[in-house]
Amino acid sequence: MSFQVPPAAAPPGSAAIVYADLPNRIIAFVIDIVILAVVNIVVTIVLGAVGLSMFNGLDVNYMAVLVSGIVGLAISAGYFIYTWTSMRATFGMKALGMQIGNEGDGATLTMNQAARRWIAVGGWISIAQIINPVPLIGMLVGLAGLVYIIFLLYTTAQSPTKQGYHDHFAHTMVVKATRAVA
Question: In terms of Cα–Cα distance, which of 37, 174, 54 is closest to 117?
């Protein structure tokens, strides 16, 4: 199943596909992050139960942070890449009636496109979390991450097709089904 590039306007009362706007995309991403946070909390509890507690009193257990970060990275990659390539949307996107496809023809994303988009959207955040506990470097990586997120939001908001840098990087487009009003 694929979608067509949205027309300028749809006939009144008909179902139409439009470019997904920034607020809906943010809400969908927040839903996905909450889902991933719950899964990661469970995984962290399990890792702590097998002796990989992240904190030993006030000290940081860097090995536990590394293992937890790698597991979180795999979970995040698996979630986004799988849902984009098999369901054409994450659970957050589905909840808001959005789907993602190839920018040229609306075809389902390839694994390569999904992986590229995941890296550009936030895969690097999972990698940065591993570095986060390291003094100064963690703070600088966090600040760079904030600047990058603002850049993604800006490029998405300024694009007439609502494609941010991450969409251009992976050649993807997010659309939303809507009803045109008379």
Answer: 174
Three-state DSSP string of 20-36: CCHHHHHHHHHHHHHHH
Q: Is 16 strand, coil or helix? A: strand
- Count the neighbouring beta carbons within 10 Å of the beta carbon of residue 116: 19
C-alpha distance from residue 21 to each of 43, 52, 82, 168, 170 (Å): 33, 41, 23, 16, 18
Helical ranges in the chain per DSSP H? 22-49, 62-82, 91-95, 111-118, 124-131, 137-158, 165-170
What is the three-class DSSP state of 107?
A: coil
Q: What is the mean pLDDT of residues 134-139?
A: 76
Phi, psi of 51 (to 5 degrees): 100, 10
Whether pLDDT at 146 is above 60: yes
C-alpha closest to that of 103 among 23, 14, 164, 29: 164
**What is the pTM (predicted TM-score) of this model?**
0.81
172-179 vs 15-19, strand pairing mode? antiparallel
The residue assigned the tokens 């470019």 is 19
